[in-house]
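Postdoc handover notes: sequence design on the structure in folder B. Input tokens:
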């Protein structure tokens, strides 16, 4: 991964951890729901980005691994 991508992942994971800590101490139901929605958004973005990095590599390995003339 590039340094920008790693930085975005670290910021996302840090934000997710911070939101989960704040979520436990909130008493207002609207703020608690907002924090929960933000946690869901951040988690889905980080997981979606990770899947978009893993999926093409897996597909390429499957395609090129099934052809004998592409094997090293």
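Designed sequence:
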């Amino acid at each position: 991964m590039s340094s920008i991508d790693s930085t975005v992942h670290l910021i996302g994971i840090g934000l997710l951890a911070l939101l989960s800590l704040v979520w436990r101490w909130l008493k207002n139901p609207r703020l608690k729901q907002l924090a929960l929605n933000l946690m869901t958004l951040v988690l889905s973005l980080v997981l979606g980005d990770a899947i978009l990095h893993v999926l093409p590599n897996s597909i390429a390995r499957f395609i090129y691994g099934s052809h004998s003339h592409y094997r090293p």
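Context for whoever picks this up: DSSP finds two helices and no strands in the chain. Don't rerun without checking with the PI first.
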